[in-house]
Amino acid sequence: MTSTPPAPTPFDHRMAVYGADDEFVAAALPFLVEGLGAPGEPPPVAIAAPDKLDLLREALGGDTKSVTFVPHTEWYTGSAANAVAQGAGYLAAHAGPGGRVHLLMEPVWNGRAGRSVRETTEWIRYEALANLLFAPLATTALCAYDTRTAGAAIIEAARRAHPDTAVYEDPVRLAAELDSVPLPLPPATAQPLTQPYPEAVRSGAAARGLAPADAELFTEAVTAAVTALGPLTGALMWGEAPACICELRAPRRLDDPLAGFVPPPVPELEPGQGLWFSRQVCAYVDIRDDGTGTTVRLQYG
User: Fold this and answer.
1) Where does the MEDS domain start and stop, copy by copy (predicted)?
2) 188 Cβ partners below 8 Å, 6+ apart?
3) Average per-residue pLDDT in the chain?
């Protein structure tokens, strides 16, 4: 694939790669100082592992009180879509005019984000789609990648999602490439679901070992996805707690790479916004459009 020059937007999305603590400080400290000197901006935010936050506090000295420190396990919770919600919520509540703020961001690559190829792919998608989701905002983000916790394959993939690298790819193109990998076929033990779907999902989730509260959340997530898709041609469920899976098939085409990632403008979900709720609840949501219809696969846990 050939690289695509980044389209100019107010959103400044950068990447730093390092393999030692002093290299981290050398990349992060000038960024935070830049944020401290940016006119019309609130204090910059450092989101990183606790030990790295300690390094920054020591390096900043008297400027420590002017920076907001957040352990990355408190920011990156749940799925990649939760990171979108966290970022959007923080910018709405704390950023300056136009979303102005400097964010130093280190995903938890030695935790949930990097625990499997499937979930790593979803976090790379998040990095790519951030270029579209936050494009209207004048936010400056520096994504920190530690070679000691994020492997070479993760870092090379992440380079393609950051406009300040030589291998940056158009986000839509990169997302389409990630979605070109076929989903594994459902197991032979997958159970067809019959309407009404909420009751079928609730009872199926309970039978597969989900606690009542989890079964209810999963039911709400599936129901929200059904509402977004419209009439279905089929629904299957399989798996055991905590990884219960529901697959929905609909004739409606859903080829929007941002489906389920765009926060609703109001707290109350409107038709078509159900996938946003689904992505917040589920570990991940796979969407495939084969040209004749859409398959949505939701996994809880």
Assistant:
1) 12-163
2) none
3) 90
